[in-house]
Amino acid sequence: MLSEDYEKMMLIYLSGLVDGPGFRKIEDLNRLGSHELLQLSQKVDDSALGLFVQLLKSSESGERLFEKLMGDHEEENRALVDAFFTRYLKVVLSSVQEGENFNPLEVYLPVHTFDDLAFVQSRQGFFLRQTIDTINEYLNGAFKGKHSFGPGEQQPAWEYFWGKVMEK
After folding, report:
1. DSSP tag of 130
2. How far is CA 1 from the centre of its chain?
3. Which are the contacts of 135, defined by CB distance < 8 A and separation ≥ 6?
4. How far apart are the C-alpha atoms of 123 and 4, rounded to whole Å?
5. 73 and 52 in a common domain
6. One domain for residues 68 and 136
7. 103 and 91 fall within a common domain
8. Is the pLDDT of residue 7 over 50?
9. Which residue from 37, 81, 83, 162 lies 20 to 30 Å from 53 (Cα-Cα)?
């Protein structure tokens, strides 16, 4: 949750990145469509990216704003979504200490998205690029159990994962 001061600072900052009316309160971001929000995110400096996401998540309609940032799962937004999350993972999440058990799959493919099969399917390439240890750890958390796919078994792990998602 952002403090009121950081919230105001971010809204002023974001207002400077757009033409037309700025943003007086977080809810003003709701007037932006997914494509516009993603374009705005491209203008946000790397140093402010973490605060930008916190701002979206801290609003009353934060979950909806974050879904917009995920492109509302529209095909024409996929490149922008992938570019944003690749940048976000690199700039914000890469600074997380290894000892904190950071798993990029938990961020890029959160459990609450499993109902959106098109979205989940769009993350297959990202899933397959992870190390098998990262995948096993993610599966352990997502499906409560011990998973032990071996080195090079990313594809069988994906097939298992997809089958579990389809069961839900």
Report:
1. S
2. 17
3. 105, 127, 147, 149, 154, 157, 161
4. 35
5. yes
6. no
7. no
8. yes
9. 162
Distance CA 13, CA 72 (A): 24
- Considering only CA atoms, which of 68, 84, 60, 65 is closest in space to residue 1? 60
Torsion of CA 23, 31, 36, 73, to 10 degrees: 130
Is residue 81 domain-shared with residue 146, that is, in the same domain? Answer: no
Please, are residues 122 and 73 in contact by the beta-carbon 8 Å criterion? yes
Q: Let me know whether 13 and 89 are in one domain.
A: yes
Nearest-angstrom CA–CA distance, 111 and 119: 12
- Specify the amino acid at residue 57: K
Measured distance CA(16)–CA(23) in Å, rounded: 9
Please count the structural domains in the chain.
Answer: 2
69 with 110, same domain: the answer is: no
Positive or negative CA dihedral for 38, 51, 55, 7?
negative
Which range of residues forms the domain containing residue 53? 1-95
Residue with tokens 């977080």, as numbered in its chain: 26
Structure confidence by residue, pLDDT tens digits, 86-136: 888 777 766 554 445 677 788 778 888 898 888 888 888 889 988 999 999
pLDDT in tens, 36-83: 999 999 999 888 888 888 888 776 654 567 777 776 667 788 888 888
Residue 146 is which amino acid?
A: K
